[in-house]
Amino acid sequence: MSARMEGLGELRTAFGAVKEDMRLRTSRLMVASGGGVIRKESRSLAQRQGLKMTGALIKNIVIKRERTPDGLTQYNLGVRHGRHMGRNAARQLVVAKNGRVISAVVDDPFYWWFLEKGRNVYHGDGKRRRGVKSRVEATPYIAPALDNKRAEAVEAMATRLAAAIRKANGQ
């Protein structure tokens, strides 16, 4: 799921006024400030919808910067989960279904996609997809956050750009 921001033409022309050596840093700060507005709104929506049972889902809504294979940088707003929790994720020893002791990540919101998009869930013996089928209804919180705060995100980016231009002019 990706969405594009509209109405950024004025920002692009003003961005030309920033010195060459400051462009990369300024662009990163601009996107981070705009994404921060949307991240804050998605956390607030998730909490209002009652998705704060352990708090794992809400505190793991993050913005991640990635390099694409063609050399571009993209920013993703989503939920950190599973093996993507990082090296600093807290771990605990738990007993698995087969009786072995394994190391599991604490507060891993692996279920975030079920809540955002909805999904069929099968309850069975864990070996096959048989058993009782139930549906987890979608309660989206990331997509509506983008719709709600799109204008504020662009405004935050413009504010960050104006600060960079003032800094470049020595003011």
Task: Chart the SSEs and their pairings.
Layout: H1 9-15, H2 23-48, H3 56-59, E1 61-67, E2 73-79, E3 91-95, E4 101-105, H4 112-117, E5 119-123, E6 132-136, H5 143-168
Helix pairs in contact: 2-5
Task: Please summarize what this structure is.
This is HK97 gp10 family phage protein. The chain has 171 residues and is α+β, with helices and mostly antiparallel strands.
How would you describe what is shown here?
The chain is of the alpha+beta class and 171 residues long. The protein is built from five helices and six strands; from the N terminus they run αααββββαββα. α2 packs antiparallel against α5. The longest helix is centred in the first third of the chain and has 26 residues. The protein is elongated. The mean pLDDT is 79. It comes from Pseudoduganella lurida. InterPro entries: HK97-gp10_tail. This is HK97 gp10 family phage protein.
Provide key terms for this protein.
171 residues, alpha+beta, two-stranded antiparallel sheet, 5 helices, 20% strand
**Terminus-to-terminus distance:** 41 Å
User: Tell me, what's the shape?
Assistant: elongated
For the record, the count of structural domains works out to: 1
Helical content band? 40-55%
Specify the number of helices.
5
The largest sheet, given as strand count, sense and whether it forms a barrel, is: 2 strands, antiparallel
Strand order of the largest sheet: 1-2
Regions with little confidence, pLDDT below 50 for 5+ residues:
none
Cα Rg: 20 Å
**What is the chain-wise order of helices and strands?**
HHHEEEEHEEH
Strand content bin = 15-25%
Q: pLDDT average, as an integer?
A: 79
Number of strands: 6
State the secondary-structure class. alpha+beta
Protein name: HK97 gp10 family phage protein
Organism: Pseudoduganella lurida
